[in-house]
Amino acid sequence: MPTQRTLFSLDFVCTCLVMFLTYCNITVFYNLYPYLEQIGIDARWRGFLIGSSSLATMALFLSASPFLTVARAVPCATAGALTLMGCGFAYLVAGDVATLLAVRLLHGAAIYLLSASCMTLMVSRLPPQHSGQAFSLYSVALLLPYSLVPAVCDLVVPHLPSAAYGYRDMALLLVPGLAMIWLLGRRRRAAADQAAPARPMSLGEMYKNAGQPAIALVLALNAIYIVAFSSLFFMAKGLFQSRGHADVGLYFTIQMCCMMAIRLGANRLFDRVRKVRLIRLSFLLSAASFLLAARATTLAGLYGSSLVMGIGMGVSSPALYGLMFDISPARFKTVNSNLMMLSLQIGNFLGPFLGAAAMHSFGYAGMLEADAVWCLGGVALCSVLTSRKVDVGGMAA
Description:
Helices cover about 80% and strands about 0% of the residues. The chain is mostly helical. It has a single domain, classed as MFS general substrate transporter like domains (Growth Hormone, Chain: A), CATH 1.20.1250.20.
């Protein structure tokens, strides 16, 4: 597809909506840890099973990303949606470690097919002058479910026989997603694309490109941020219960409102302000949020930490993804954007695994303090980026 001049198009809107539905089928597992406990899964396996879906996603990002072209994106997205729907039903019968591991790995493969396909379609038509704005809005579609789904599920799941029925029902929301994927396919076939086909990329080229210092640093920053956030997200239900609070949904709703206000109200800012400065600010605010949560003794204190986290999240992903798009050579823009999705999955795998380990060793407060340390490590890496003069795509603030 040719690059379009305007950001807002039916293709862009449909791609964002499909990603929203995809991530609803990731965030619905916010209560997977207590569910695994309820069905008798040993504590040693719970954190690994939560993060294991990302193993298949990571393996496919590492091995298949160069071969997922625009022409293959729609069929792959269709296969991913159908597989994800099947997995939703499979949780109803998966009751032992081996079966759950198989379902989680298949679930992760479906997430790859959907997320990589949507990213490929979006980047192929992204106006370069709107990279920050585009990733600001696109990241809303990715992160909005983290705030909405727990609140909705806290209301609905108690009326279901088990959380597994919630996983099934969320998967059914991909039915309209299939319709949008079909529409994207029709529009792609109808487009008169006169551009010469891109030269095929090898795995060696992708790995050599990913090893470039600036590219590797941005990938590392994205992974670090997601490790910290996902460890909190998947352990938040237990955190709230340990402090005598029944529901965690409002915590993420507050976070979402802050994030939405920044990304929708100031999304043009991401193409004007130097992105490394925004990334550093997001890590500092997130570290402060984790420390506030670790020391909070009241529900109001926890909600205050959510407010700070929401502000940090409001500037993190758009700046990170926009910076990667800006510093990538034209040939590698799509594959590097998909490598950002890979680093996100690495974070989603390590986050609950490390979070569960830190919680069992140091308690919930210690886990939150460890997350703050992760974020301060991100601040240090931002200094490395600045020293390498990797600070493009905007004017000085």
